[in-house]
Amino acid sequence: MLIKRYLPPIALAACAFLLPPILAAAKASFLLTQLTMSAYYVLASLGLCALMGYAGQISMGQAAFFAIGGYASSFISTRNLVAVASFPAVRFLDALGLLTRGTDSYGAALLSPSPWIACLCAVLLAVLVAAVIGTPVLRLKGHYLAMATLGFGLVIEKIVRGTKALGGADGISNVPAFDIFPGLAVTGGRAARAANFTISWLVLALGLLALVNLVGSRAGRALRALHDGEEAAGAMGVDTASYKLKVFVLGAVYAAVAGVLLTHYNGSIGPGEANVMKSVRYVAIVAVGGMANLTGTLVAGLILNFLSLRGVFGRYDDAVFGIILILVMMLAPEARALGLGAKAALAALPRRRGGSG
Amino acid sequence: MQSSLFVQYLVSGLIYGSIYAAVAIGFNIIYNATGIINFAQGEFAMLGGMISSTLAGILPLALAVLAAVALTALVGAALERVFLRKVARGGVLKMVITTIGLSIVIREAALLVWGEGVRTLPFFTGNEVSSVSFLGANFSPQVFWVVGITALVVAGLTAFFRFTLIGKAMRGCSANRDGASLCGIDPGRTVTIAFGLSAAIGAVAGCIVAPLTQTHYAIGTGLAIKGFTVAAFGGLGNSVAAVVAGLFLGMLESFSIIVVPEAYKDVVTICVLLAVLFVKPSGLFGSRAVGALKDY
Amino acid sequence: MSLLELEGLSRSFGGLRAVDGVSFAAEADRITAVIGPNGAGKTTLFNLIAGSLAPDSGRVAFDGADITGLKPYRVARRGMARTFQAVKLSRKMTALENVMIGRQVRSRAGFASGMLAAPWTWGEERSIREESMKAIELLGIEEYRDKETGSLPFGIQRSVELARAIAAEPKLLLLDEPASGLNVRETRGLAELIARIRGRGITILVVEHDMSLVMDVSDEIVVLSFGKKIAQGKPRDIQANKEVIDIYLGEDDA
Question: What pLDDT is stored for residue C175 in this prediction?
Answer without folding.
Answer: 94
